[in-house]
Amino acid sequence: MERSLPLFLESIGYSAWERVFQRPEGYPYYHWLHTLEGEGRFELLGQAVRLTRGQGVLLTPFAPHSYYPASDRWSTIYITFGGAAAEAIMEALHMNSSTIYEEGEGPSFGTLFNDLFRRIERTPSHSDIDVSTDLYYFLMQLRKFGMLNHEPSLSQYYQRLAPIVGWMEEHLADNIGLPEIAAHAQVGIHALHELFQQAFDMSPYSYFIQLRIREAKKIILQHPERALREVAEQTGFNDVSHFVATFRKKEGITPGKYRDLHQTVDQAAVTERRGWSETVGEERVEEAREE
């Protein structure tokens, strides 16, 4: 077990007859436990909850807890893990808290576990690095398909937002904002904001700007000779200076530098002849100011 890896697997297994555990000091690693058959009682953060088939619990290190069978037979599956980047990864996935999970519409917890277990057990040459990668994939799938506090899973949020995102992609060049997006979605602005925060961890308008910048990058790569003002207009920016400032804020470089980094020698020659700096004086001044 290589503890210097971002993630390492401390233990993994199946308990046909789960026992009574009392851990007032918690467990030193992240601990995933889900019910395969029967029912258990789990005491966490001063509350006792049922853990039935299709439910699991993710515990952070040293979280006080206890659990015991609540049926004649309580069968569980467990995974414990840590790693040099475990806390940072769990924070990034918004999973760094002790929480009860429920299965959503995607793969069952048992399926996710079996996929992980088979990859580890059936490959003799499976290295610690491979295990670390597989464990990360398991966590990503759990984050995507697991439901927290009876709320929809990420996958379900994505499905609900897919038509809205598709409409946004079709109207990148139009002069629209949050009210128009909410009107098309037929939901209130607050409700729309909550949906996007849950699915993408950003506001709907920030996501719309991200789509516009992505489209601008695509145009720049496919048509490096195209004037900067034209690229801005095709992606919904009526003001070139606003486009340049937004592009730089999102990408860390100006559109001109982005183009220069990705174009070929032949494309550079064409661009030089037509020249972004020769299109409009405002564009030349803004590029010089930003760079």
From TrEMBL:
Alphabetical UniProt keywords: DNA-binding, Transcription, Transcription regulation
Keyword check for Transcription: yes
SMART domains attached to this UniProt entry: HTH_ARAC
Region spans: Disordered: 272-291
Statement: the UniProt record of this protein carries the keyword DNA-binding: yes
HTH araC/xylS-type domain: residues covered: 162-261
Source species, domain of life: Bacteria
Alphabetized Pfam families for the sequence: AraC_binding, HTH_18
Name of this protein: AraC family transcriptional regulator
